[in-house]
Amino acid sequence: MKRQRIDSLQALRAIAAVLVVLFHMDAFMPSFMEFEFAGRWFRNGEAGVDIFFVLSGFIIYPIYWLVLGALIAAELVGATSGNPERLEPFTILRSVLLLPSSEYVLNVSWTLAIEVIFYAIFAAFFFLSERAFFVAMFVWCTTAVGVRIAGIDAGPTWLSGFVLYSGVAEFGFGVLVARFTS
Q1: Count of other CB atoms within 10 angstroms of residue 172
Q2: Is 10:55 a contact under the CB 8 Å cutoff?
Q3: Who is most buried in 37, 78, 102, 118, counting CB within 10 A?
Q4: How far apart are CA 150 and CA 161, in angstroms?
């Protein structure tokens, strides 16, 4: 039975990935190729990211560094956009370490950086008693959502855009799913 649940999570991840790809095709095809993809049916496909965040409270898949290495190599030989900012040493370092930033070699790295922060804070909470752990998670998640709803500028990007990113609540839901299904 446990194997079926994991297979189901993998299937859900596949659906989320397809939604994100279709969202990007739907959003960017008209501007790059003057071609409207699927009549804007997938304009809400970015919800796939939300699904990933919920699942990431349960699992993580770090193939990222292979893709990052390939992209850096492609940039070095001029096989991609030729964006010189991608090859700046600090941009590469932030990308490799997934440090909070507004600049990455691979633009979608922000989602993984949020995951890294979530897991670092999660790890700190993990040493608490179960009750204290869930209280700390609840306070963190509700604070992040509250900051978003209230439109509060929480300060520097690493705090407002990553530690207090409202998506951490989705990770929290994944933690709850893992807790109550295990």
Answers
A1: 23
A2: no
A3: 118
A4: 14
> CA-CA distance, 48 to 12, in Å (whole number)?
9
Q: What is the pTM of this model?
A: 0.64
Asked if 71 contacts 106 with a C-beta cutoff of 8 angstroms, the reply is: yes
Mean pLDDT of 1-6: 54
The tokens describing 12, both together, are 């859900």
Residue (of 55, 47, 154) closest to 100 by Cα position: 154
**Measured in whole angstroms, how far is the alpha carbon of residue 45 from the centre of its chain?**
14
Residue 25, pLDDT above cutoff 80: no
Q: 15-40 burial string, b = 16+ CB within 10 Å, else e?
A: ebeebbebbbbbeeeeeeeeeebeee
Determine the residue type at 25: M
| pLDDT surpasses 70 at 130 | yes
142 contacts: CB under 8 Å, gap ≥ 6? 169
For 116, 120, 160, the CA distances from 127, given in Å and listed in that order, are: 18, 12, 25
